[in-house]
Automatic annotation (TrEMBL):
Coiled coil: none annotated. It is found in: Cell membrane. Its main location: membrane. It comes from the Bacteria. Keywords: Cell inner membrane, Cell membrane, Membrane, Transmembrane, Transmembrane helix, Transport. The keyword Aminoacyl-tRNA synthetase does not apply. The keyword Cell inner membrane applies. It comes from Deinococcus seoulensis. This is Monosaccharide-transporting ATPase. CDD domains: TM_PBP1_transp_AraH_like (cd06579). The chain crosses the membrane at residues 20-39, 46-67, 73-94, 106-125, 131-151, 171-196, 225-245, 266-294, 306-325. InterPro entries: ABC_transp_permease (IPR001851). It is a multi-pass membrane protein. The lineage of its organism: Bacteria, Thermotogati, Deinococcota, Deinococci, Deinococcales. Pfam families: BPD_transp_2.
Amino acid sequence: MTPPTAPPTAAPAARTGLKLPNLSTLGPLIALLVACIFFATQSDRFLTLGTFSLILQQASFIGVIAIAQTLIILTAGIDLSCGMIMALASMVIGKLAVEQGVPIPLAILAGFAVGAFVGWLNGLLITKWKLPPFIVTLGMYSIVFAAVKIYSKATSVPMPADGLTFLAQRFTVFGTPFTYGSLLMVALFFATWLYLNFTAPGRHIYALGNNPEAVRLSGIPQNRLLLSVYTFAGVLYGVAALLLLERIGGASPEAGTTENLESITAVVIGGTSLFGGRGNVMGTLIGVLIVGVFRSGLTFMGLDSVYQNLITGILIILAVATDQFSRRKA
C-alpha cells in the first residue's frame, strides 16, 4: 500500500510571486514600460491619465475573461469557448431585461447562471469523460455560437440609456474620469491574486497544473477542483457580459468571436505558462495593458491595426520562448 503523501501546500514561491521576480515575471513589466516610453516619444497625447483611463475602459471585459483564462491555464487547461459564453450571457441579460421586462437584478443573475452552467458543462466533460480541454471547449464554442444565433434570431438588443449601463458611470481621479467597469476589473484581478496566493484552494490550482500526480496522491479531489475552476470561470464570463453591454451599448449576436485568442494572448504575454502550474494573475493584468497600450499607441501614430496583430504575434512567440527557456534552466 502506498503511504499517503504530504499534501502540496504552497507552490514554489517563484510561481506565486512571493520571491524575487524572475525573467518571466519581470519581462511583461519591462515590455509595458518600454512600450509606454516609445509611444510617449511618438505622441504628446499618449502619456496622459485620459489615455490610461481609455485603455482600462476598452480592456475591461477582455481583462475579466483573461482572469478566468489564467485560472484555467494554471491547471494546464485552456478555454476556447470563453468569448461565446460571454456573448450568450449578454444576450440572456439583454433579452430578459429589455424584451421580457424582467427586473434588472434578476436578468443579471440569469446571465451569471447561464455562464456558470456552460462553464460547469465544460468542466464535467473534461473531468468525467477525460476529454482534452482544447477539444471540449472548441466544440462548446461552436455549440454556444449556434445557441446565440438561434436565441437572438441574429438580431441585436440595444440597451436603454438608463438601463444596464451603470458600469459606464464615472468617478474622477485627479480630474480624469474613470468608469466603474474599469474599477471592477482591477478589483477582480486583486481579489484573484489574493485567492491564488493566500488560500489553500488557490495553491492547489498551482499544484494541479504543476504536478497532478502529487495532487492525486495527497487526496485532494482533482475533479471537484477542476469543476469548480471551470464553473467559476463561467461566472466571470457573466461579469464580462455586463462590461460588454456597457462597452457596446447592447447585446450583439456578433460578439465573442475573437475574445478567446485575445484573452490567451494577454495570459501568455503576462508570463503564465501554457503548460500550467506557473504564472501570476497580476502578470495577466500587465498583459492586458500591453495589448491596450499597443492598440492605443498605434492609433495615435496613425498606423493600421494590422501592425497591432504583427506586434502581438511577435510578443506571444517571445513570451512562450522565454517560458520554455526558464523551464529548461529550472
